[in-house]
Every structure is written in C-alpha cells, then in structure tokens.
Amino acid sequence: MATQIDTLVTARWIVPVEPENTVLEKSAIAINAGRIVDILPTDAALERYSAGETHELGDHVLIPGLVNTHTHAAMTLFRGMADDLPLMTWLQDHIWPAEQQWVAPGFVEDGTRLAIAEMLRGGTTCFNDMYFFPDHAAEVASAIGMRANVGLIVIDFPTPWAQNAGEYIHKGLEVNDRFRNDPLISCSFAPHAPYTVSDQPMRQLATYAEELNLQIHMHVHETAFEVDQAMEQHGQRPLGKLSAMNLLNERLLAVHMTQLDEAEMDLVAGYGVHVVHCPESNLKLASGFCPVDTLLARGVNVALGTDGAASNNDLDMLGEARTAAQIGKAIANDPSAVPAWQTLRMATINGAKALGLDADIGSLEIGKAADIVAVDLMQPATQPVYDPVSQLIYAASRQQVSDVWIAGKQLLRDSELTTIDQEQLITLAEDWRLKINQS
Ligand SMILES: CSC[C@H]1O[C@@H](n2cnc3c(O)ncnc32)[C@H](O)[C@@H]1O
Ligand SMILES: [Zn+2]
C-alpha cells in the first residue's frame, strides 16, 4: 500500500548539494510535515507514495533554497537613492541621514516585505539580516513563511531603534526571547563593524554569544580605508583587535573581508571564522576584492551575500553566485578557481553552516526541512544541458526560478507569489519613494 505524504515534487534533475558533486536524474522529493522524507527515482516514488499534491516539473532542476548570508532587507526602499559612491561617503552623507529620518517599524515592515518578495522570486529561502527593528523584520518574514536570521544590532550612535549600547543589547535580547520558538526565525548578534562599536559592548556580545549560543554577524575589513583608519587610531588592524577581544572563532560571520594579509588568512582559517563574500556590493562601492580562492584552499567556510539593495542594487543570489565565480577566477588569475559546484555550495550549505542551521537547511537530504527551489532550464538561455550546475551558475537568470517551498509550504507557484500581494507591494514601494523624494 502506498504511503501517504503531503507533497511529491518530481523533476528532470535534482542537485542535492550533499553529497558533493551529485546530480540525480528523473528523481523526486517526498515531503511530509515540512520535511524531506525521501529522495528517489520518480518511477519508484510514484509507486511508493500517495501525495496530497504532486508537482511534475519536467525540465527543471531542483536545488536547496539559496541562503543569502548578508542582507539589510528593508534597504530595498533606498534602492537607487545614492549610487556610484565610495562606502564612507555613501554611508555618512546619504544612508545614515536617510535612516535617521525614515527608519521606523512601518518602513522596516514594508521594506522587508519587498525584499522577501524579490528574494523568493530569485530562489532565496533564508536570509541573514542586519537592520533596525529586527522584531518587525522577523514578524514579516514569519507571516510570509520566509526563513530568516535577524541581527540583534549594535552601533555606537543613537538611532530610531535604540539610544545606546545598553539599550541595543537589551532590546536585542528581548527579540531573541520573543522568537525563540518560531521555527522560521533565528537570531544572531550583529555589531555593525569594528569602527562603529566600542570595545566594551563588543566584549559583552562575545560573552552573551557564548551563553546564548548565538552567532555574531559583523562587517569586517570591508575597505582599505577601514584598515588604515584603525592603524592610525589604534595602531592595530581591525582583525587584530577582534582577536584580542576573543571574537575570532566559529561564531563569527565576517562580512566582506576584502583586505586580508597572509597572516590574517591563516588566523581566520585557524579559528574557523566564517567569511561572507558580497562581490557585487564590493564591486559597486569599489571596496576591494575578497581572496575567495585562497580562503577556500585554506579550508575557510565562505558563504555568499548580496548586502543591501542600496549598495548592490539587487537581492539576486543566482546573479551574485555568477559574479562570485567570475571574479574569483579573475582574482586568482586561474579559470579553475571558484568552480560552479563550489559556488553553489557557497550559496547554499556554506551559508547554512555559517548560521549554524546546516542540520536543517542548505542541502536536500532526508530529514532536513523542505526548502526547495525549482529552476526551469527549458529556456533558450539554458539549453542544451550538459551539466545543470554549469547552467545554474553561468547561464540561468532568476526569472527562471519557477517554484519555491520553505518548510514544505509553497511560497512561489509557477512564478507567482502565494503569500504576498505583489501588486499592493509595488504600490507601497512607490508610496515610499514619493514620501522620501518630497522630503
Ligand atoms: C546597524 S543596522 C546596519 C547598518 O549597516 C549599514 N550598511 C549597509 N550596507 C553596509 C555596508 O556595506 N557596510 C557598512 N554598513 C552598511 C546600514 O545602512 C545600517 O546603517
Ligand atoms: Zn552590509
């Protein structure tokens, strides 16, 4: 007798990411109670299971949901507002003043909803966020059915979210408590950067992170200016300072990391620091180049992030992956560097590992959450298919993402969002543009 399950998804190819370098042909994923219960040839699946819903995705490839490991989701509402500037001018003269004026619960809710709509349409099923009002971002994500890790932010200056380090930390701890039992939401500490967070709160976060088993998500060595300024002010590079405060360990997600000498790469590898590579933001702000190939060769876990939509200017993880692969080769002066398979790992399982979520997400394996993305390869841009991973990384665009499931729930069905009213969302975004433009 057939076993009853919730959903069966069949496809021409499945790239489970784990085990490595595996492509399953004409196979199916059986889903029950939000989890993957089987992965097997389609013929066998149709005999063995009786599914509430069956999705036959002919010429599609199924991959694990993409993990965007560094975002500022609500900054979608600032997309295109201040382009073609270096980081510190962009932040100090444009973004921080705009945030002081506009950031509030409603702004974060609408901006995060817009970001989630964009991310889901592009195959992202989990994002690691660092922004104000993380409780509102978490609420929106949870209501939509999106998986998120929200940053419990800390920054030295007062903002609409908190006035001082004590208040940032206190409010962050409250957010962590409040979402403790939400299966889609996790939290990390998110001190903005070594140049904006003083030593005392930084040390406090290191202690709390150990106590509460939380990751620490921070911009580190984003630009040469950051490193030069730290040398001038403290006679030490930021990574040295973080090391002295015992912050270099497997809890740290160091974002950007474009300025690394040999000793620092050894340090990062030795302590198991996770590096989050944001190639498009680094390119657009001319921040520098992260030596991904060298880091990978030393065994560093390198994940991928888009950064915010005001510096990228999109939240497109397939695009980011292509850029990462291409720029990785250029920096290494080696076309075999950062190959397609490795890049897909950076966009999936490596992000999950960095967030400590790899028992649940990042690959298509029995027992893991059913966070699944279908990409339609039956398009001129991705034909013929010698290797579906090559097509995904070097040729496919996010418009080819057709279906997305998170914890077994379908959030994108045949390119339509199921839990977001897209038309209403676009009207809202335009309302924000008008308001912000008029000020
Ligand atoms: C404390 S909330 C996050 C804070 O970070 C700002 N931000 C956005 N992108 C970057 C970046 O690439 N480097 C440094 N800071 C960035 C964002 O505007 C918020 O103020
Ligand atoms: Zn950032």
Automatic annotation (TrEMBL):
Reaction equation(s) it catalyzes: S-methyl-5'-thioadenosine + H2O + H(+) = S-methyl-5'-thioinosine + NH4(+); S-adenosyl-L-homocysteine + H2O + H(+) = S-inosyl-L-homocysteine + NH4(+)
Pfam families referenced in this protein's UniProt entry, alphabetically: Amidohydro_1
GO-annotated molecular function: 5'-methylthioadenosine deaminase activity; metal ion binding; S-adenosylhomocysteine deaminase activity
Residues that coordinate or bind substrate: E99, H192, E222, D307
InterPro entries referenced in this protein's UniProt entry, alphabetically: Amidohydro-rel (IPR006680), Deaminase_MtaD/DadD (IPR023512), Metal-dep_hydrolase_composite (IPR011059), Metal_Hydrolase (IPR032466), MTA/SAH_deaminase (IPR050287)
Cofactor(s) listed: Zn(2+)
All residue ranges annotated as the Amidohydrolase-related domain in the record: 61-410
Highest taxon listed in the record's lineage: Bacteria
UniProt: Zn(2+) binding residues: H70, H72, H219, D307
The enzyme's E.C. designation: 3.5.4.28, 3.5.4.31
UniProt cofactor note: Binds 1 zinc ion per subunit.
Keywords: Hydrolase, Metal-binding, Zinc
HAMAP family: MTA_SAH_deamin (MF_01281)
Similarity remark: Belongs to the metallo-dependent hydrolases superfamily. MTA/SAH deaminase family.
Function: Catalyzes the deamination of 5-methylthioadenosine and S-adenosyl-L-homocysteine into 5-methylthioinosine and S-inosyl-L-homocysteine, respectively. Is also able to deaminate adenosine.
Name this polypeptide is given: 5-methylthioadenosine/S-adenosylhomocysteine deaminase
Originating organism: Methylohalomonas lacus
